[in-house]
């Protein structure tokens, strides 16, 4: 070997002052030249410190505020990371949900005849979030998901639950503003659970957006059919119907639980 690392170059290299191209050529030379390698001081403390700095930088990207909140609430790190990377967790979807709920509340306050609009729409919002949230076109962590041990149905459940939770919290904030008794104001909650779990069950046979569309369509058809039969659009939100939604949500959730843990 005719060329060796000069003392100046070695000093600059050790101080971390070389541009990447020159640093890499020094690396390459050190790799093949025992003489120059012997000139690199071996300090265990320095090596350990720089490795730890590197490790901290590569392995622990700074978590977002929402992710830190979830983790302080006891959500495991990998679940929190995937939840906060859910596209529906971004501002646009939340803003759309808030706008839809606000519009429905204002309409119902304008005329009680519009109350069913809020009750029928609230279960559609999490479905829309789930439908819009999946697939390579929209998902920034799609490649990561394809390689994660938490793949497939279990992952869909985790992220759908996150989407549902956000929609339920927002609707729960809006519901007390409705001109209706508390029981009726909350009549969207069990339908939300039932339609979301129905969508998840269908998604083992159909693409996720088609499942969401089917579950949402069934729900709206059911509301319209019950209203048409009895002449009262609130029929689908009465106590008997609520019992049905509760049972359906429970049974479908159990089915999903066994499917995922099978
Ligand atoms: Zn050399």
UniProtKB/TrEMBL annotation:
Domain of life (superkingdom): Bacteria
Coiled coil: none
Keyword Transmembrane: yes
Record domain Putative zinc-finger: where: 8-37
Membrane-traversing stretches: 91-108, 114-135, 156-178, 184-203, 210-230, 236-258
Keywords assigned by UniProt, alphabetized: Membrane, Transmembrane, Transmembrane helix
UniProt cross-references to Pfam families, sorted A to Z: zf-HC2
Annotated protein name in UniProt: Zf-HC2 domain-containing protein
Organism of provenance: Nonomuraea guangzhouensis
């Amino acid at each position: 070997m005719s060329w060796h690392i000069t003392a100046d170059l070695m000093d600059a290299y050790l101080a971390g002052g070389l541009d990447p191209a020159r640093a890499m050529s020094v690396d390459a030379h050190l790799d093949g030249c025992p003489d120059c390698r012997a000139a690199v001081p071996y300090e265990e403390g320095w090596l350990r410190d720089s490795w730890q700095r590197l490790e901290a930088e590569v392995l622990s990207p700074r978590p977002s505020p929402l992710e830190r909140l979830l983790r302080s609430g006891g959500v495991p790190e990998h679940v929190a990371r995937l939840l906060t990377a859910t596209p529906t967790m971004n501002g646009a979807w939340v803003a759309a949900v808030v706008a839809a709920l606000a519009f429905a509340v204002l309409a119902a306050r304008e005329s009680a005849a519009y109350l069913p609009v809020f009750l029928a729409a609230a279960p559609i919002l999490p479905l829309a979030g789930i439908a819009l949230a999946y697939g390579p076109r929209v998902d920034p962590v799609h490649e990561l998901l394809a390689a994660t041990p938490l793949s497939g149905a279990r992952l869909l459940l985790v992220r759908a639950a996150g989407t549902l939770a956000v929609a339920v919290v927002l609707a729960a904030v809006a519901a007390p503003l409705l001109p209706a008794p508390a029981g009726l104001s909350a009549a969207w909650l069990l339908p939300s659970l039932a339609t979301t779990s129905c969508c998840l069950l269908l998604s083992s046979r159909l693409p996720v957006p088609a499942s969401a569309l089917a579950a949402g369509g069934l729900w709206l058809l059911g509301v319209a059919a019950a209203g048409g039969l009895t002449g009262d659009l609130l029929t689908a939100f009465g106590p008997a119907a609520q019992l049905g939604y509760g049972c359906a949500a429970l049974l479908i959730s159990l089915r999903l639980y066994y499917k995922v843990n099978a």
